[in-house]
Write a structure and sequence with these properties.
Layout: H1 3-13, H2 18-25, H3 29-36, H4 44-54, H5 58-62, H6 65-74, H7 78-88, E1 91-97, E2 100-106, E3 109-111, E4 116-121, H8 125-132, E5 135-141, E6 148-157, H9 161-170, H10 173-177, E7 186-198
Antiparallel strand pairs: 1-2, 1-5, 3-4, 4-7, 5-6, 6-7
Helix pairs in contact: 2-3
Length: 199
Amino acid sequence: MTTGEKIALLRRRKNITQEQLAEILGVSRQSVSRWEMDQAFPETEKLIRLAGLFSCSIDFLLSEVLERTQQESAELSLADCVNFIRECGYFFLATSVAESPRLRPLGMICTDEQALFIVTDKRKSVYSDLKQNARVELASHNITTGKWIRIGGMAEEDDTSVTQELVLSCYPTLKQRYPEEQEVFLAVFRICVEDMGVH
């Protein structure tokens, strides 16, 4: 997508006409039209103002990097997400209860390609947080590649035997940590993914 196409797209998303954008920036409507048709290029000062107006970076306006990132994110499967996080070794789970945000590292995540599953313990505060407010975000950063993943969604406890078997097959050490009499404390949450992206 060219710079002109991005300006046109962002302008339409804001419900601004070419005339209104021209007035905001102190240029003629014809200048805006030429930018959008890639017949001219905005000056640096105008690019800075466009980035502020559209809440985007100048890099986004000038390059195709973000566009490629968004395409990669759109093609991302849940298995890709799990593999990315496992390569990192851990992920952070963000919760919010009574308008108090909390961030904690976790390590166990798997998928059945329909949803993501995270593992915790019913005796931990994260369990009660998830029961009080199901909205969560997961994030992980790969220090080797410099990329990070963010996943947003809703968490609901899943105590079905199918899910328990999936989790135990992915993490056999859980059988040692939770012998039969301790299994009541094993908690698995299904994350119904609403949005995700790799950056």
